[in-house]
Amino acid sequence: MSQDKQYIDKNTALRILISGGGTGGHIFPALAIGGAIQERYPNAVVEFVGALGRMEMEKVPAHGYKIHGLWISGIQRKKLWKNFLLPIKIVSSMNKVRNIINNFKPDAVIGVGGYASGPLLRAAIKKGIPSLIQEQNSFPGITNKLLAKKVNRICVAYPGMEKYFPSGKLVVTGNPVRQFPELSAIEKAEAYEFFGLAPDKKTVLVVGGSLGAGTINQSIWKDIDKIIESPGQMIWQTGKGYFHDLNEKMAGKRYDNIRMMPFIDKMHFAYAIADTVVSRAGAISISELELMKKPVILIPSPNVAEDHQTKNAKTLLEADAAVMVRDAEAVDKLVDTMLGLLSDQPLQNELANNIAGFAKPDAADHIVDEIIKLIERK
Questions:
Q1: Is the pLDDT of residue 3 over 50?
Q2: Can you give the pTM of this predicted structure?
Q3: Is there a contact between 17 and 110 (Cβ–Cβ < 8 Å)?
Q4: Which domain holds residue 271?
């Protein structure tokens, strides 16, 4: 918590609405902020607003929170005909968020990006409700860029964001991420048992983000026999969209050192036993890896605005805090690089020590500080 004196009593029943979703990169920061609010203010009521049909409608209730769903989507740039319902969706969503705000009566509203953030923040701003957005990336999403001039505060993870946002509203807080407690020896044994893996083997965790990554999956599958024959073992999160096809392919293989899953719900188990990680270079993924002090091979996605994942990766690369394989080279290089790192303990130690220096474990608390300042000022 910041050193500025704050007057809201810890027993105050604050009412906070949080919106954002579409991917884990928006959902997990939103959940982290919600958790930090309730930890500091146990009587606080936190509810969420998301987009119907998106993954937040499943993940948020799984964490015990109520979520309101909006009929909203983004602009389809490749299939323009799909946009004909967009004006109706926007009107529907604006009507619904006005009703949500009138009934819930929030003390503050927070947006973390994603389709649903726009209607909620716009409605809150019109009613004079304190508003804050949190931008995870070094290049902001379109929703946050559109909202920036009207909201009261903008919390960012990277310095130099004045080129996108009004400088007087900016606060560098870092990215709020899921907190994973260190597991005891008994809990680690449970983690190996959960994945059906051997405690005496080195383990690599392969993730492509919450929705999966085609290039990473293709690269792993191309050299799957090398992995099966290696002395190590692998936890492989494929993403739901890729799992069925890969599972059918794997049915023809004999192996006991690979655990393949569409999505890992017990990520704290996976991180606890992972000696190395293969990941995209999204801001939230990197923030979690920094906090967990994990040696990582990053494969930046080329399909993001301003190639910001490559910029994220290069920041760590220049500090000898990660290994990078370019997306275009992954099919040929990824598995050999992965197995090489898995067998190189000195390099693992160096990467783990260096990436830990980037961690911002108090990011969610700093964002709560800013929310409370806005509420007090009102």
A1: no
A2: 0.82
A3: yes
A4: 185-356
